[in-house]
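quick one before i forget lol
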Amino acid sequence: MTRIDDTPPAWDERAQLTTFLDYTRATARAKCDGVSAENARKALLPGSPLMTVSGLINHLRWVEYHWFRVVFLGEEDRGPWTDEDPDREMRIAVDFPLAQLLDEYAEQSARHRELVAGNSLDTQARGAVRDGLHVDLRWILLHLTEETARHNGHLDILREMLDGTTGD
C-alpha cells in the first residue's frame, strides 16, 4: 500500500485538522488498492458479518454525510439506514462495485472539503447530538478523523486476512 503524506502545508489549526482527515480518507482508499470484487464483499469476522471492505467504505461515506449534512448543516437525514436496520449502509454495500463506492466517497469528501473551507472551525452545528449539544466544526473534524482512523484498523485486519497485504 502506498504511503500518504500526513504533513500539513501550513501549521495552523485548520491545516492540521483537514490534513489529518484527508490523510485518513486517503489511507482508507489505499487499503482498497487491488482488492478484488469478490474479496471486497467477504465478511471474515464471525462476530461481525457486516464488516466487509465494501461495507466499511460505504459506512465511512455515510458517516461523513451524517456529520456534515445532517448534524452540521441541519439537513433532513436521507441516509440509507432505518430504525429497523441501523447498519443498512454496511449491508447494502455488497450490492455495489467497490470502485463505485470509492468514487462516491471521494466525490463526497471533495464537497465536504469545500464546506469546511467555507466555515469557521468555531461554527456551531445546526443539528444537535446527544443531550441537545451542538458541537462545532472543529469537533466534527476531530471526530471524523478518529472514526476513519479506527475503521482503517478494521480495513488493515480484513486486508491481511483476505490476501496477506499489510501496510501503514
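fyi The CA atoms of residues 160 and 166 lie 6 Å apart.
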